[in-house]
């Protein structure tokens, strides 16, 4: 076999040049990720410095700035290792259809995130039900909506599912209505029973006087009359009112049971 001369000088120069490029690309990637995180935190804090800025909007724009920085870092890394941006754009342009189909879900999540930001059906801190999940909104970014469930478990829902389905926002309006049933002995006069229940609701600090509570007899069973109760309360006091109604129902049941036991 003929001897093929090996230019070790050329090879060493090649290794040195590309080695420095690879090391530089790694360093640039590490620094780029750190800078992107710093930009995210800085934009988030800067936007929240304004009292008029909504937390949801601030989180979304901070996430957008972070991903834009990462895209710039990616292009810089490709150029550093010898891949020209113009060539990359040409390849992506030729394969745009395939890339679009492959990233259809991701792009739909991004588009849905933009729509959620524009129309803002909820904000951070709202209690919502969507896509079969319920919880308190913790964050909205380009791809996911983050909820904290009732037992404080993280729930991530793709934005496309949030935007494309019915959504219940329990925190949108300042007041909520509670509906329940209470019972009174059949021997007790209707008006006296209604007045007794209405007096309890009027004295309850969690019940609103306007709209006025509604107490209506609806059914008779087992020697007792059922009364349908509809009462309004501030949204943040809903659970407190429900607890008061449970205690009141229990106390009435005990009071009705004592005369029967004495007989």
From TrEMBL:
| Residue ranges annotated for the Mechanosensitive ion channel MscS C-terminal domain, each copy included | 178-246
Q: What does this protein do?
A: Mechanosensitive channel that participates in the regulation of osmotic pressure changes within the cell, opening in response to stretch forces in the membrane lipid bilayer, without the need for other proteins. Contributes to normal resistance to hypoosmotic shock. Forms an ion channel of 1.0 nanosiemens conductance with a slight preference for anions.
GO MF term set: mechanosensitive monoatomic ion channel activity
Entry protein name: Small-conductance mechanosensitive channel
Q: How does it sit in the membrane?
A: Multi-pass membrane protein
Q: Which gene encodes it?
A: mcsS
Protein family? Belongs to the MscS (TC 1.A.23) family.
Keywords on this record?
Cell inner membrane, Cell membrane, Ion channel, Ion transport, Membrane, Transmembrane, Transmembrane helix, Transport
Q: How does it assemble?
A: Homoheptamer.
| Domain Mechanosensitive ion channel MscS residue range list | 106-171
Keyword Transmembrane helix present in the record's keywords: the answer is yes
Q: Where in the cell is it found?
A: Cell inner membrane; Cell membrane
Extract the Gene3D superfamilies matched here.
Answer: 1.10.287.1260, 2.30.30.60
Ranges that cross the membrane: 15-36, 57-82, 88-119
Which range is the signal sequence, renumbered to this chain? none
| Annotated Mechanosensitive ion channel transmembrane helices 2/3 domain residues | 67-104
Q: Which Pfam families match?
A: MS_channel_1st, MS_channel_1st_1, MS_channel_2nd, MS_channel_3rd
Coiled coil ranges (UniProt) are: none
**Source species of the chain:** Methylopila turkensis
Return the GO cellular component terms, semicolon-separated.
plasma membrane
């Amino acid at each position: 076999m003929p001897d093929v001369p090996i230019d070790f000088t050329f090879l060493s120069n090649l290794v040195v040049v590309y080695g420095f490029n690879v090391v530089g690309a790694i360093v640039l990637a590490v620094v780029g990720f750190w800078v992107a995180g710093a930009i995210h935190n800085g934009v988030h804090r800067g936007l929240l410095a304004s009292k008029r800025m909504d937390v949801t909007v601030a989180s979304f724009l901070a996430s957008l700035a972070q991903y834009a920085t990462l895209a710039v870092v990616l292009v810089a890394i490709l150029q550093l290792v010898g891949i020209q941006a113009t060539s990359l754009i040409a390849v992506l342009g030729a394969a745009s259809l395939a890339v679009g189909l492959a990233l259809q879900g991701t792009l739909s999540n991004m588009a849905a995130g933009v729509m959620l930001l524009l129309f803002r059906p909820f904000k951070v801190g709202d209690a919502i039900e969507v896509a079969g999940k319920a919880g308190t909104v913790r964050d909205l970014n380009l791809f996911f909506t983050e909820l904290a469930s009732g037992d404080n478990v993280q729930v991530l829902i793709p934005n496309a599912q949030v935007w494309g389905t019915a959504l219940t926002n329990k925190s949108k309006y300042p007041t909520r209505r509670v509906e329940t049933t209470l019972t009174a002995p059949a021997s007790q006069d209707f008006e006296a029973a209604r007045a007794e229940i209405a007096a309890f609701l009027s004295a309850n600090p969690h019940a609103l006087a306007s709209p006025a509570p509604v107490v209506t007899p609806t059914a008779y069973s087992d020697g007792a009359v059922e009364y349908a109760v509809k009462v309004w309360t501030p949204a943040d006091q809903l659970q407190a009112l429900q607890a008061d109604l449970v205690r009141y129902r229990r106390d009435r049941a005990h009071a009705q049971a004592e005369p029967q036991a004495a007989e």
